[in-house]
Write a structure and sequence with these properties.
The complex is a heterodimer. Helix content of chain A is about 45%, strand content about 20%. Chain A is built from eight helices and twelve strands. Chain A is globular and about 50 Å long. The longest helix of chain B is centred in the last third of the chain and has 68 residues, at about 630-695. The chains are: A alpha/beta, B alpha/beta. At the A-B interface, helix 1 and helix 5 of A face helix 24 and helix 25 of B.
């Protein structure tokens, strides 16, 4: 099996250095770029499986890099590293087509999980698994049956649509905007989404006050716990 | 009833809100002296004191009555102020002491009292206003005859006119009015027992005053006034709580005032009528352009002020005729009632020239007209007018006489060719010429002279004043009649022309002034222009004051004036704080030299204008206090409105500048924050990432990879430490906590130690120190840090393998140390900015940048030690050069 290729785009050499070491240990093939222009140039000639992109780059910033990559039609997953406490930056990046993010400083486990989720999603799209399982939740995507601890749970069509969307991107953050667009078809209030998420949690979570399945990414969106 | 009707009236709510924060005023109202107002006030004050209220006596007149005296015991008395006036020592309430004492409740007896001239306010009720404004509750007493609008009614009943009056507005604003009532019989009984004190002046009137009938009438007045007040309070309450009621009968009332006697009575009548009708009311003076004497202007101004004091509005309107002006105003303002005084001119004269009253009655339409009889002489406005006539000007009459003489000469020359009856026309020319040139009186005079001359020189028998032919008698009569009518008409046209010309000139001046203001960009220019304009147009001395750091300062004056005496400054301050006029001729501090008027915009008072007459002070004092006639007052108002707006415009402009500046500062601050956050988080991210990688994937990592991660952790921790140390140094520098520990050092020694510490592994170092350098007085630790930071900076930008040179030599009185590198040099625009905090020149090869603090700290340290540091580019080759200068004389020879 050929190793998956990951490009790290960050202007800080120490960050690149430890990422390279740690990712190489997980059998990824690691490439590096110090700024946006170099990264775009590199990607033109060398396709990779995933990009780790720092938002605060000198010169062309991370958002611009995403915009150009997506404009060119490249579909490889992008995981954002954001060192500023900039909610808007993260959300914009996700809306522009980035797949996920981690905030600096971060633990290596967290980044590895995000990378795996982003890659898994790409791999699954070809042949989607008909049965999703995460903890006590099981979703049969073919028969449209949802069970918790083996007990069937009744969902309204819209609740099911929302859950199915979360399941098909399990482990990945989905922005408010994306969820509203996909489930409600555009112009709706975030408040709507919050209400549906609450009812879903009440039906699916063991403790709806401390959710362990549908997780809130404050100011960004929601994330369903990855499949087992 | 619809829902919209049920909304609380904003006015009523505002009134309630306006009273929050102010002290509460309670008035003990009595019908006559001796009913026991002071007694009742003290009883109630004691009760409140028992409730724990902090009450003091500002002033209480017990007139030696034992039972009243006893009641004052146990209530703190603020000592009165002794004032020397005309050789007598008088005691007045010490307003400032009470204000300073700040009780919850102050007792102030006899609200209508006049203060000794020279006090802050001429009237005690104004003192009370100050107390209320300071949030102090006030109890006070008042007799009904002192109420302004009832003043003349009481005078009519008792035949005693009281000079000390209180405006009705203070009664309207009182939170409580308590009527202290006593039947006339009981009062007379008390009087017989000697329990009633009467002021000396009224002693004589005592016989007339204390008659059962009078007392009954006064009692009724007091009861009615209190009832009216209760009524008004109820209406306010109902409005504030949106209870609908019958008050919407929006009656509006106008009282026409002029300089004729009886004006004050008409104004008071208007106030009473307005109260009864629950109407708003306005006193209107019509300026017809006929010239008025100083005394007449004063009188009108006083009447207008009287109206304002009694809660009405005042307005001056220009028009050709009084009746016309009043009616125009009435129609424009939906007036429903007009109050006028009846003139007492003879019927004969009225036929020739109808009085204002008649014209108004004729043209009033559906407006009710109330006619108040004119009562000459007995009016109470301080300065009665001397005469309603224009002062006779000898020059005008001499001129008319000259015109008549010329016409007579021409007539005599033409008597051969002209019929006698036609000569009359020649003489008529002289009459008309006089009317055009000098106005009505001189032209009537010319008419008389010409009639006599005509008779004397042309009508047989010649050179006598007798007339032989009866036909000629008729000719002469017709001549006189024509002369009179022509004079009248021409004179009227003339006055109107003059008024129009004056107005045009004023308008022109105002227009030019506003254009000038629009072009002014600085506040000082604006104020000077205003001072000049006001001085020029009103022929007054002008000063302008504006607040400056909490104090009012003279900002401009024409003629230039820098300082004000204390009295003036106090008046100006009061005017600024209260937003009312103060100083000369006003109600507050009338003793000041100048009159101070606030200049306001919607946002409040922005400046104060002070006015003083051009003549010297002694004469003006004799002339009385009025500086401005209504015309001038209006002019001043529009000038100061324009100025106030212009000041506001400048304020707004500067506020916008400030907003822009603070936005830039804000941007800088957020850039700083981002920078610090980045500098702290990047090393942390590396450390945390490396550490978690080691923990999680230790099994998969080779020894070499593990060593790499550990090295990253160590280096990044050191970088973080370095950054934090720099931040601390910077903080020390900026807080001024840095005190260099100066001692004599050997430069070579310091250079040696810094070269061991600096990260110079990848560069060549060349040293050139002059052999006989003096010892330098420096803080060795700080100086080593300076050199370290500059060398550290050089290693970041100069490519590996290039040389970094350190030169030192003595020049004059200082030692110069230069550090030169072989890097790319400094971009021109960055020469000075390299010393800015968090400023970094981007290294070309993406090598990691420093903290952006090193050079800033180097400069801070150098300056703390009395040296300097500058940055430039090398002249001999590419590269940056940092030059340190240290004074050598402070070191060379130990003192």
């Amino acid at each position: 099996m050929t190793p998956l290729r990951i490009l790290i785009v960050d202007d800080e050499p120490p960050i690149r250095r430890f990422l390279r070491t740690a990712l190489a240990a997980q059998d990824y093939r690691v490439e590096e770029a110090g700024d946006g222009e170099t990264a775009l140039e590199f990607l033109k000639r060398n396709p990779v499986d995933l990009v780790i992109l720092d938002l605060g780059l000198p010169g062309m910033d991370g958002l611009e890099v995403i915009r150009r990559l997506r404009a060119e039609g490249t579909a490889m997953p992008i995981v954002i590293l954001s060192s500023r406490d900039d909610e808007a930056g993260k959300v914009t990046a996700l809306d522009l087509g980035a797949d996920d993010y981690v905030s600096k400083p971060f633990g290596m486990e967290e980044l590895s999980a995000r990378i795996r989720a982003a890659l898994r999603h790409r791999l699954q799209q070809a042949g989607e698994k008909p049965l999703f399982k995460s903890g006590e939740l099981a979703v049969d995507l073919v028969r449209r049956i949802v069970t918790v601890k083996g007990e069937e749970v009744k969902l309204t069509p819209r609740e099911y649509d929302l859950l199915r969307l979360l399941v098909s991107h399990a482990g990945k953050v989905l922005t408010h905007k994306f969820l509203l667009r996909e489930v409600w078809g555009g112009e709706s209030d975030v408040q709507y989404l919050r209400i549906y998420i609450r009812t879903l949690r009440q039906k699916l979570e063991a403790d709806p006050e401390q959710p362990s399945l549908i997780l809130t990414e404050q100011g960004v969106g929601y994330r369903l716990r990855a499949a087992d | 009833m619809t829902d919209t009707d049920a909304r609380p009236s904003p006015d009523a709510l505002l009134k309630q809100a306006g009273q929050a924060g102010r002290g509460r005023l309670k008035i003990f109202l009595g019908a006559a002296p001796g009913v026991g107002k002071t007694y009742e006030m003290l009883v109630q004050a004691r009760r409140r004191k028992l409730d724990g209220v902090d009450a003091v006596i500002g002033v209480v007149e017990t007139h030696g009555r034992v039972e009243t005296d006893l009641l004052t015991k146990g209530i703190e008395i603020v000592p009165k102020k002794r004032v020397l006036y005309k050789g007598r020592v008088l005691a007045e309430m010490d307003l400032d002491a009470v204000l300073q004492r700040r009780p919850r409740l102050a007792l102030v007896d006899e609200l209508a009292h006049d203060n000794v001239p020279g006090s802050r306010h001429p009237k005690r009720y104004l003192d009370v206003e100050d107390l209320l404004a300071a949030g102090i509750d006030v109890y006070t007493t008042l007799n009904v005859q002192h109420i302004e609008s009832l003043n003349d009614v009481v005078a009519k009943i008792t035949h005693v006119r009281v000079r000390e009056t209180v405006p009705d507005s203070i009664l309207d604003r009182a939170d409580d009015i308590e009527l202290v009532d006593l039947t006339p019989e009981d009062l007379l009984q008390r009087l017989r027992e000697g329990k009633v004190y009467m002021p000396e002046a009224a002693e004589r009137a005592r016989q007339n005053y204390f008659v059962a009938g009078n007392l009954a009438a006064l009692r009724e007045l007091a009861l009615r006034r209190t009832a009216q007040r209760v009524d008004a309070q109820m209406v306010d309450y109902m409005r504030a709580h949106a209870i609908s009621g019958p008050w919407e009968a929006s009656e509006r009332l106008l009282v026409a005032v002029n300089a004729k006697p009886g004006g004050a009575a008409a104004v008071r009548y208007a106030r009473r009528l307005a109260d009864r009708l629950r109407a708003s009311w306005t006193a209107v003076h019509v300026e017809t352009g006929l010239s008025q004497s100083e005394a007449e202007r004063d009188r009108v101004a006083q009447l207008l002020r009287l109206a304002e004091r009694m809660g009405g509005m005042a307005a001056t309107v220009p028009a050709a005729g009084e009746a016309e002006g009043a009616l125009q105003f009435a129609r424009a303002n939906n007036i429903t009632h007009i109050v006028i005084t009846a003139s007492r001119g003879s019927r004969w004269l009225e036929f020739l020239r109808p009085s204002m009253a008649q014209e108004i009655i004729r043209q009033a339409g559906d407006i009710s007209v109330h006619v108040v009889p004119e009562r000459g002489g007995k009016d109470d406005i301080a300065k009665a007018p001397t005469s309603g006539r224009v002062p006779l000007e000898p020059r005008a009459f001499a001129g008319s006489l000259l015109f008549s003489a010329i016409a007579l000469g021409v007539g005599l020359l033409l008597r051969q060719t002209l019929a006698v009856s036609n000569v009359a026309l020649v003489l008529l020319v002289a009459v008309l010429a006089s009317a055009v040139a000098y106005g009505l009186m001189p032209s009537l005079f010319a008419g008389l002279v010409c009639a006599l001359a005509y008779n004397f020189f042309f009508l047989p028998p010649l050179y006598t004043f007798t007339i032989a032919d009866p036909e000629n008698v008729i000719t002469l009569l017709v001549f006189v009649l024509v002369a009179a009518i022509a004079s009248n008409l021409t004179a009227r046209v003339r006055t109107q022309a003059i008024v129009a010309r004056q107005r045009a000139a004023t308008t022109e001046d105002l227009y030019r002034f506003s254009r000038k203001l629009a072009g002014i960009a600085t506040l000082d220019d604006l104020l000077w222009a205003t001072a000049y304009q006001v001085a020029h147009m009103l022929r007054l001395h002008v000063v302008l004051l504006m607040p400056d750091g909490g104090n009012l300062q003279v900002r401009a004056g024409y003629p230039p004036e820098d300082t004000l005496d204390e009295g003036d400054l106090a008046a100006a301050k009061w005017a600024f704080e209260e937003g009312h006029e103060a100083g000369r001729g006003s109600d507050t501090l009338p003793g000041a030299r100048r009159l101070f008027l606030p200049m306001r915009t919607a946002r409040g008072v922005v400046a104060i204008i002070g006015l003083d007459s051009e003549k010297d002070n002694k004469r003006t004092e004799q002339r009385g206090a009025t500086l401005l006639n209504p015309d001038q007052r209006r002019l001043l108002d529009s000038l100061s409105d324009q100025t106030a707006l212009a000041i506001e415009r400048l304020h707004l402009a500067s506020e916008m500048d400030q907003a822009r500046m603070s936005a830039e500062t804000e941007k800088l601050r957020s850039a700083l924050l981002t920078s610090i956050s980045h500098d702290l988080r990047t090393p942390l991210a590396s450390i945390l990432g490396s550490a978690t990688s080691l923990k999680q994937y230790r099994g998969q990592l080779s020894d070499c990879d593990q060593a790499e991660l550990l090295r990253t952790i160590q280096e990044e921790a050191e970088r973080l430490n370095h950054f934090i140390a720099n931040l601390l140094d910077m903080t020390r520098l900026e807080s001024g906590a840095l005190v260099p520990n100066m001692e004599l050092i050997d430069l070579a020694d310091v250079v040696g130690s810094v070269l061991r510490r600096a990260p110079l592994e990848q560069h060549r170092v060349s040293l050139e120190l002059e052999p006989d350098l003096p010892m330098l007085r420096l803080d060795p630790v700080l100086f080593e840090q300076v050199l370290f930071n500059i060398l550290d900076n050089a290693t970041k930008y100069a490519p590996p393998g290039t040389a970094i040179a350190l030169h030192a030599r003595k020049t004059g009185n200082s030692v110069i140390i230069q550090i030169l590198d072989g890097g790319p040099g400094l971009p021109d625009e960055d020469r000075e900015r390299v010393f800015d905090k968090f400023y970094r020149v981007r290294a070309a090869d993406k090598k990691r940048a420093g903290t952006g603090l090193g050079l800033a700290i180097a400069r801070g340290f150098m300056e703390a030690m009395g040296g300097t540091i500058t940055a430039s580019n090398r002249s001999d080759q590419g590269g940056a050069m940092f030059t340190l200068t240290v004074p050598a004389n402070s070191a060379g020879t130990p003192s």
